[in-house]
């Protein structure tokens, strides 16, 4: 390679890799001193309004609630304790900290705590590896006592930022890899690589942390995902960075063209057809400001609701201590102790050599919160949104700040909370309607190519909606085919031909929520209310059939495992066994499913063994502080020995107990051409809806909108 080529390679490779690895994986690097509030490797399009909310100085954060996340000061204390702990103190450089977060006090302690009381002892929980041996440690930040906690039998902790950043670079030190890239006709300066978790497929993959690397050509586009170097897979030892194996099954498969793959506005605005007119800008204006308040950094109040919210490196958003004011009595009533995304399972449906292992668990392998992108004001969140940051740690335990990770905002899209108008035949002039305004807590995680938008939406009528939206870029497969007529009859492409030489591979998304319900307190039960067709007795009625609701209370875990079925309708109630309404109905909340999907993989397929928490859409388990992650504490290269399915197989009693509801939201994705080169957002949701929780409609008190109360805005010219 001559000097000019070498110089070009170094400059372009450095720029390309930093952009792709840092921007797409959204990492903030720690600086020295021990944390940074922002990263020099965040890129924003100048054509998009990214008015930045004011930054917060987290150096001075103080703890006000037992569930507040660790502050920067506490992280530094925990790190210091770890580095002086035996055996780590003998070789601190051999210590890797995979996670460091709050070791939450016992639930009974948190529930009994009141504002103004002294805080319970602050503890941290650290997941580490020292000389390849894993440790799970509880650290008392006051006494400096360290207690070792149980370690799973298989698997490894969530990858660190450094793992995900360094692994794609490692193959470039291997001559055989470089020769393979060159043989495929790709310049080294255009290569972009991604770290891909490999699941578990037998004993040959045990004994060391492995990862697979696959690469793309970034020549001519920012959307390198659309230009795979198909069939090339590098098996890498994640700790030694040794290239274990290089497989190239893609000879003869061309690199797809970069034409029409770029999605950035700076590029697409110049290609827009003259007959296309974008909608005029729209914004929700609140002259009096938002109706919600955020106090002490994490405590939210809005329209009778109150809850604690925080960012988590693994789960993303955590909602805790959720309660609502009863409009009849003015008393606060408990609804949920804690809720969050526990795991994601994303299996691709291509069993060939370069694809079979793509069965991601995004929370346990990559960290759902670690992948959270700073939200874009005015586009991800509206004008009057309030932003919250996350404080996480790197592999050496130093804290860093993920800015604007969560936003809170009020939403009004013209929906109606309730209405009624009398028809003319009654001769009653009644026209009553109320606008529906909701409160949304939002985050967006960009797990490499895919973007997940997670909303927690709270309604004034007591309903809670968990919504997941999918966008971003497909993970595609290169092919020699340029038209469907080229595909031989009977050949399975495992997907859809989206463009010349590009196949969108069929895949699923499953998002499992853990919801620790405390409806009017922790003693709850789970009832399945089955709707069945009943026949009328002969001569009883002109009707021959009707529906009957039959209530069955689940006594054990297996009785509460639910596979949704359209033609076997049920309602699913979590209710308090000791509190009833004035007419005798138990107070409760019910699960209301929207569109969802179920896993259709063979239960003994290795990915499904690990993702067995998707075998049902609903599970109920007794509360257990250690059972938080549906795929297990250690997911990476795990065998599926520590999952929700394994725990629930114990068939423990759940009636009149402190119980946890697990719900899996699913998507089957058969790609189509509209998904190219970037996908329009699709979404689904499920609700937790009051069922006999209130004495009557809880939003009768809502006032209607009046013209005099609303702002009058004048449109201004826009560029």
Automatic annotation (TrEMBL):
A GO MF label: primary methylamine oxidase activity
Cofactor(s) in the UniProt record: Cu cation
Residues annotated as the enzyme's active site: 362 (proton acceptor), 450 (schiff-base intermediate with substrate)
Origin superkingdom: Eukaryota
Family (UniProt): Belongs to the copper/topaquinone oxidase family.
BP-aspect Gene Ontology terms: amine metabolic process
Enzyme nomenclature, EC number: 1.4.3.-
Domain Copper amine oxidase N3-terminal: 157-256
Coiled-coil positions: none
UniProt keyword annotations, A-Z: Copper, Disulfide bond, Metal-binding, Oxidoreductase, TPQ
Matches recorded under InterPro entries: Cu_Am_Ox_Cu-bd (IPR049947), Cu_amine_oxidase (IPR000269), Cu_amine_oxidase_C (IPR015798), Cu_amine_oxidase_C_sf (IPR036460), Cu_amine_oxidase_N-reg (IPR016182), Cu_amine_oxidase_N2 (IPR015800), Cu_amine_oxidase_N3 (IPR015802)
Ranges of residues in domain Copper amine oxidase N2-terminal: 65-148
Domain Copper amine oxidase catalytic: 284-700
Protein name (Swiss-Prot/TrEMBL): Amine oxidase
Cofactor note: Contains 1 topaquinone per subunit.
Modified residues (2',4',5'-topaquinone): 450
Mod. after translation: Topaquinone (TPQ) is generated by copper-dependent autoxidation of a specific tyrosyl residue.
């Amino acid at each position: 390679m001559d000097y000019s080529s070498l110089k070009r390679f170094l400059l372009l490779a450095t720029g390309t890799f930093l952009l792709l690895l840092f921007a797409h994986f959204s990492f903030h690097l720690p600086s020295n001193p021990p944390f940074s509030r922002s990263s020099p490797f965040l890129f924003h399009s100048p054509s998009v309004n990214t008015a930045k909310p004011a930054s917060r100085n987290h150096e001075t954060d103080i703890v006000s609630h037992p569930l507040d996340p660790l502050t920067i000061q506490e992280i530094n204390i925990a790190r210091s304790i770890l580095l002086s702990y035996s055996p780590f103190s003998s070789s601190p450089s051999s210590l890797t900290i995979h996670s460091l977060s709050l070791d939450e006090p016992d639930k009974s302690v948190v529930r009994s705590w009141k504002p103004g009381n002294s805080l319970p002892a602050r503890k941290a929980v650290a997941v580490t590896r020292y000389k390849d041996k894993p440790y799970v440690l509880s650290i008392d930040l006051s006494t400096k006592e360290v207690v070792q906690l149980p370690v799973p039998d298989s698997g490894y902790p969530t990858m660190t930022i450094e793992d995900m950043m360094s692994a794609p670079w490692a193959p470039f030190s291997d001559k055989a890899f470089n020769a393979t890239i060159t043989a495929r006709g790709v310049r080294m300066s255009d290569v972009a690589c991604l770290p891909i978790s490999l699941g578990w497929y037998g004993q040959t993959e045990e004994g060391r942390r492995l990862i697979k690397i696959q690469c793309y050509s970034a020549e001519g586009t920012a959307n390198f995902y659309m230009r795979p170097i198909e069939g090339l897979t590098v098996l890498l030892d994640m700790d030694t960075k040794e290239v274990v194996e290089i497989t190239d099954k893609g000879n003869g498969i061309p690199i797809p063209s970069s034409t029409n793959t770029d999605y950035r506005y700076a590029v697409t605005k110049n290609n827009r057809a003259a007959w296309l007119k974008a909608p005029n800008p729209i914004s929700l204006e609140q002259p009096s400001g938002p109706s919600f308040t955020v106090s002490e950094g994490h405590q939210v109040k809005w329209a009778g609701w109150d809850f604690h919210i925080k960012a988590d490196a693994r789960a993303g958003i955590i909602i805790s201590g959720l309660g609502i004011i009863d409009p009849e009595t003015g008393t606060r009533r408990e609804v949920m102790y804690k809720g969050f995304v526990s795991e994601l399972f994303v299996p691709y449906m291509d069993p060939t050599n370069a694809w079979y292992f793509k069965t991601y668990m995004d929370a346990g392998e990559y960290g759902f919160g670690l992948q959270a992108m700073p939200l874009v004001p005015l586009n991800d969140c509206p004008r009057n949104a309030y932003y919250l940051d996350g404080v996480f740690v790197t592999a050496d335990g130093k804290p860093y700040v993920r800015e604007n990770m969560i936003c809170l905002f009020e939403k009004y899209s013209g929906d109606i909370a309730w209405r009624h108008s009398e028809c003319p035949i009654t001769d009653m002039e009644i026209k009553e309607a109320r606008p529906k305004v909701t409160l949304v807590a939002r985050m967006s995680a960009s797990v490499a190519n895919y973007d997940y938008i997670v909303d927690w939406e709270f309604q004034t009528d007591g309903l809670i909606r968990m919504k997941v939206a999918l966008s971003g870029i497909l993970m595609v497969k290169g092919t020699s085919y340029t038209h469907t007529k080229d595909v031989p009859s009977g050949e399975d492409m495992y997907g859809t031909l989206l463009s010349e030489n590009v196949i969108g591979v069929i895949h699923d998304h499953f998002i499992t929520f853990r919801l620790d319900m405390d409806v009017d307190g922790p003693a709850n039960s789970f009832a399945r209310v089955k709707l069945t067709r009943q026949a009328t007795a002969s001569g009883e009625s002109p009707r021959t059939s009707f529906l009957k609701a039959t209530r069955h209370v689940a006594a054990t875990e297996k009785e509460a495992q639910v596979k949704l079925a359209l033609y076997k309708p049920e309602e699913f109630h979590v209710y308090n066994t000791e509190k009833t309404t004035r007419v005798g109905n138990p107070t409760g909340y019910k699960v209301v499913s929207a569109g969802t999907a179920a896993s259709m993989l063979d239960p003994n397929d290795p990915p499904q063994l690990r993702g067995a928490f998707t075998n049902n859409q609903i599970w109920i388990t007794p509360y257990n502080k250690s059972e938080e992650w549906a795929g297990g504490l250690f997911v990476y290269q795990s065998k599926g020995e520590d999952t929700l399915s394994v725990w629930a197989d114990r068939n423990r009693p759940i009636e009149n107990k402190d119980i946890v509801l697990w719900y899996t939201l699913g998507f089957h994705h058969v790609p189509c051409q509209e998904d190219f080169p970037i996908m329009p957002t699709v979404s689904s949701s499920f609700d937790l809806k009051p069922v006999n929780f209130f004495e009557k409609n809880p939003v009768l008190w809502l006032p209607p909108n009046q013209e005099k109360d609303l702002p009058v805005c004048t449109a201004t010219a826009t560029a």
